[in-house]
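User:
Can I borrow your eye for a moment on a structure tokenisation matter? Would you put together a sequence-and-structure record for a protein of your own picking? Please set it down just below, with no commentary around it:
AI:
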Amino acid sequence: MSLALPSLGTENQSPYQVESRREILALLKGFRDKSQLISLMINNGSEAFITSVLDIDDANNTVIIDSAPGNEANQRIVEASSVFFDGLLDRISIQFSSSKLQRTQFEGRPALQMPVPTSVIRLQRRENYRINTPVSMPIKCVIPIETESGKQNQKFSLVDISCGGIAILDDRNLIDITIGTCYEFCQIDIPNIGLIDLTLQIRNSQELTLLNGKTTRRIGCAFVNLSSRTLTSVQRYIMKLERERNAKMTGM
């Protein structure tokens, strides 16, 4: 996910803007019912947290979301002039913003409250849609990292994958996140498909604070000169994840 924050409602995004209240409520309920995590960003994306939709009160026009870890972080959020949200729901990026967050309580624990958005941006990039990789059995990406004693292979957990690239978590800040940096001789061991070799290019990065208070770094990487054979393997895996996701949704 890029740190470039969209300006909601601008002309170039109008084809993706949703203003139907019923549709907006359905999207928010989708996040709640599927327990999908959402990135919450303030200060033009320089500070980000992971949250989730806890409840939607249609009658009172409010949405309740998880609070950030720590009193100071929550204070910065409620004082922010604008708060930006970006989440992935059924492989579609849903983005919205708010400037009226307040502290509240939900089921006996701290939470944040805001008005139901009057509009959201729904972006579906059909050519390279992302799909989340399984959390229960994390897939690892091996990247050779330069150290004082030479290059050493380090493992990073995948967050999502598309035919254009991957997002990984770098808990130990080992990767040079300079945009354009390339890492050769990387490998991903894809279940039921096998080991694939690839070159990755750094495209974006973002510092995240998880719900348990730990911090991590999410890094977006693009595939470089992917061979047709490797691309076919990636496509097969994405289709497999899609089938499994659809099967869970239909209860099959």
